[in-house]
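Colleagues,

For the teaching module next term, I've prepared a clean inverse folding example: a structure given as tokens, and then the sequence designed for it. I'd like students to try predicting residues themselves before seeing the answer, so please don't circulate the second half yet.
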């Protein structure tokens, strides 16, 4: 590994936002959603719709691709999105004129306590630095008066081969028990399990790193 690569990995591991700001400029605007991702998103949308929210926050909303799906499926829901990447939110704003989108950090959400019926995020919490976890999960609980829906690489569900792939990942994910942090923050976990489409070779033929979904209710 070159010195430049070593230095970059060290910096990005300490400050993951550097990685996402660099990657987020073009990567998510150029990549195409896979069939497996579409099926996973449908499963998450079904779960959110069953909760019948009136006001929803997506943390880590990025370019707004999933938030647009929520709005299309549930047009009466008042949707908000937050992300630290201004460049990705600019893409979201262009696609969602008038949307409630704001640049922010999950360690300090600028919303009132109990502002949302549902708080949802896809592939965000696994990147939270160890020193930030308590504040991040505490903020998600503070702004949530109803349910949290967290879609993540849930490592305790992995077999040995999948776990090895996770540990070898090069995009600065952290391996920790997200479900326990959800409980510690003041949620009761109602369900935590694999998203079927991500674990079925028939619907995930490329072997994309599969996800689980945690659904929890604020105490």
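(Answer key — instructors only)
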């Amino acid at each position: 590994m070159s010195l430049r690569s070593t230095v970059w990995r060290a910096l990005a591991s300490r400050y993951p936002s550097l990685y996402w700001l660099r990657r987020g400029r073009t990567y998510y605007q150029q990549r195409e959603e896979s069939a497996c991702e579409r099926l996973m998103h449908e499963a998450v949308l079904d779960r959110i719709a069953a909760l019948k929210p009136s006001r929803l926050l997506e943390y880590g909303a990025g370019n707004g691709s999933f938030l647009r799906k929520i709005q299309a499926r549930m047009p009466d829901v008042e949707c908000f999105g937050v992300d630290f990447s201004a460049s990705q939110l600019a893409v979201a704003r262009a696609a969602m004129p008038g949307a409630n989108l704001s640049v922010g950090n999950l360690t300090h959400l600028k919303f009132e306590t109990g502002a949302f019926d549902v708080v949802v995020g896809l592939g965000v919490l696994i990147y939270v630095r160890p020193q930030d976890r308590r504040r991040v999960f505490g903020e998600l609980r503070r702004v949530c008066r109803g349910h949290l829906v967290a879609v993540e690489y849930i490592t305790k569900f992995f077999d040995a081969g999948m776990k090895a792939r996770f540990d070898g990942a090069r995009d600065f994910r952290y391996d920790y028990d997200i479900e326990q942090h959800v409980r510690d923050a003041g949620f009761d976990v109602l369900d935590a399990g694999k998203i079927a489409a991500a674990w079925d070779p028939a619907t995930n033929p490329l072997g994309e790193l599969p996800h689980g979904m945690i659904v929890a209710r604020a105490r």
